[in-house]
Amino acid sequence: MAELALGIAGVAGTVDVCIKFGKYLVKACKDYGQADELVHELSVRIQVCWFRIASQLEIVKELEDNMTEDQRELQSHILRILQSKLEAATVVIAKPDRHGSSKRNRALHFLSLRETLESTVTDLESWQKRFEPSWFQIIKTGSTYTEDVLKSATLTNRRDRGDPAREGLKFREAFNNSETVKLAERVLENLEMQVIPFCETELAVKQKENKYFIIDTVSRDTVALRDARELASRLRDSNPSTFGTLKCKGVVQLTREPSLKFVFGVPDGYSRVRSCRELLLSGPTNSLTTRLKIARQLVTAVYYVHLYEFVHKNISPETILTLESPNAEHAQMLVCLVGFQFFRYADAPTNTSKTEKRSLVYQHPTRTGEIHGATTRLSSVLPNTEGYPSELDPQAIKEKLILLSRTELRVYEGNIGFGDPQDVGNQGGIEVGSQYVERIMNPMAVLCF
């Protein structure tokens, strides 16, 4: 009956119900916020997360008529999950304090309250990560009316509520950005280059300003200048914590060699940069929770690169970076894709004629999509398997990996693929994107260890 009611109400009706529960939840959090320091911290996190969600929900409500059937169905499913979580949280938080007025009983009450708030903020932050990919897809594919809705939201909402609308506008503008991304070679002169172990990119430091950059060098034999500038233009305002790609400052065209250099900015505070390969090889072994976080952010990055209308053809542990703050032990780890030595437009043919044999280890012999690429990389991230002798040639390593995928890896990852290659190949970008969210990103989001 609940699902039938949701179907009748539509996306807009479900959004209204969610916002009603959300407002009640925020009010209850504010009332309890003065209980103690930890409760106050959890209350603030819930409010910050909810303000962003509420702003995005209001925009979804306005854009329902512009959605495709796949998008509308996916939104209904995701919103149904949010409604159930909000309803459950408000029911628990709204329960009266039945422990009495004694100091000991009140302590028990606040202990229970903390657990509820911790669960609520975890649920909301997790749900938001599942929701945002489909939200940005709607923003990208919508008509010009979408821009009117976003501009209106930035004008009518205060800054914290208008931020998602501003991000949405920047994302749409990325596909029609006429600003130059060309950088002069002299910008590299003031940078101190540092090697990132087991990585195809370099870390550059601007000491006077304490700024960090990633320098990604690509060959003109494999990447055309026009394509490089288009990629840089679209990644100009990329938010790494959302999209899994770094903001691109521009492209340097070298005069003495046939190479281009992408200059990516590292977010302030995240000066500890390591490749995924180094992380996998270093000890002690990373927890399953950490590996799952890397896996989630990797599949998210692959999705957004595709949403930018590109296919990353060089994904490997050497082109996946982890960014951490050296001064904050519990700060969020960011996972970002680099290594754009091979990429193509989403609807263009793949050109790997210049690919080194060792890179072919991570490429499917017949399927060219990055969905297979992400799955192959997850094989490296999720299970801890022993390395292979260095004397093996790339083809032998590839054959060994194929054997593993058909035997041992099934214990870790199962044997059900993303979908029928023919079905995926015959669909447009919107349908494939919706399937990717539903079949890969959503299941990854619910895994907890």
Describe the structure.
The protein contains 15 helices and eleven strands. With 449 residues, it is an alpha+beta fold. The chain folds into two domains: 2-176, no CATH class; 182-446, Transferase(Phosphotransferase), domain 1 (Orthogonal Bundle), CATH 1.10.510. Strands 1-5-6-4-3-2 form a six-stranded mixed beta sheet, with helices on one face. Strands 7-9-10 form a three-stranded antiparallel beta sheet. Strand 2 (192-195) and strand 3 form a beta hairpin. The longest helix is centred in the first third of the chain and has 39 residues, at 103-141. The relative contact order is 0.09. InterPro entries: Kinase-like_dom_sf. Keywords: Coiled coil. Residues 53-80 form a coiled coil. This is Het-s domain-containing protein.
What's the structural domain tally? Answer: 2
Strands of the widest sheet, in order across it, are 1-5-6-4-3-2
Tally the helices. 15
Distance, first to last CA:
33 Å
> Segments where pLDDT lies below 50 for 5+ residues?
1-8
Structure summary, number of beta strands: 11
Q: Work out the strand percent.
A: 5-15%
CATH top level assignment of the largest domain: Mainly Alpha
Which structural class fits the helix and strand makeup? alpha+beta
Order of helices and strands: HHHHHHEEEEHHEEEHHEEEEHHHHH
Q: Supply Rg.
A: 23 Å
Shape label = globular
Largest sheet: 6 strands, mixed
Coiled coil: 53-80
InterPro entries: Kinase-like_dom_sf (IPR011009)
Keywords: Coiled coil
Protein name: Het-s domain-containing protein
